[in-house]
Design a protein that fits this description.
Layout: H1 8-28, H2 32-56, H3 59-66, H4 69-78, H5 83-114, H6 125-153, H7 158-166, H8 168-176, H9 193-226, H10 235-262, H11 264-267, H12 271-290, H13 295-305, H14 310-346
Length: 348
Amino acid sequence: MDTLDWPDHRFGFIENSMKLYTTMINIVFPKRIARGAWNYFVQEAFITFYEYIVIYGPPGVVLWGFGSRGAWNTQANLLDGNDEDIISYRDSVQSTASSIGVAGAIIAQVAITALSLQFLSQVHWVAHALWVFSLVSGIMTVYYSVKQQSVMGRLSHPKEIREWLRGIEVSRSLETMAIQNHRPNPRWFLPGVPSVLTVSAPELLMGASLASFLIGLGVYLGFVWSKQLDIAEGTIESRDVFIIYIISITISYLVYTLSIIAQYEDTYQRPRDVAERNFMTWKVNSMGQNHGQSPLIARRDLDQASAITAPVDLAELLRRSARLHRESAANDEVLAIYYQQQGTVAKP
């Protein structure tokens, strides 16, 4: 039970590939933004996808395609957090869901208005279809936001929230793992697929609704210009409107994407590293409780060790375990001497 039960034959290839990849990428892309952009697409498209499948199995494909990485990271960091953080997360999810529901309703209303635009019947049917999809996605955003608030509202105790994040079966496995002589499953120390998808659904649907509306609007403006449908405005004016629209969309998207890429290297977490870290947290907390140490002290010790690399963390953990065993042995020796003296006195 000292290490996680990783399928080494699967991870050996990716670990060696990561070492070679890291060396090459630092040479090819010395600039942070360029390196972050390359890492953003490569790591999300290949590394995360592969590790999701290895850890979660077939549901990992669904998680990679429809789950939010932000939601996954937040839940992974909270699995062994204190009760106050767990409750704050529940309240934050409910508040965010409420805001997303309002935004979804606004987008749906805008899509309804777009369906009544002039010349819609004369442009390509794709514009009409995209706006219908935007309308449906906006409505579903409102529904899933309400559904999410209802689900989170029923979780009143931190233990219930942790079980919901991990899954009930996983939580039961963790409770009985201390008396089982086997290596724990990495999946036990990561958030479950249902919880990530539940939190991700409103945001995903809202993004799809907004994107389909904007693409449909671009198709509409492009055909109004190319087919010269707006005679009153003229071809030149219709072309200029379409160009301004494309420029504004491109700039907005680039600013948003570059802000994510610039922080990507600091925020990216490999699923394997997160599982190892959460496993060490669980071991420290369990070890502290078994030796009479406060979980808060164990958490503090882990936080102090988190600034160093994983191999050093494991070495520090083993040294702390050896120290606690020595202290326990010394206390046992004192008790043995005490009982021996008591027996000697009681003998006459």
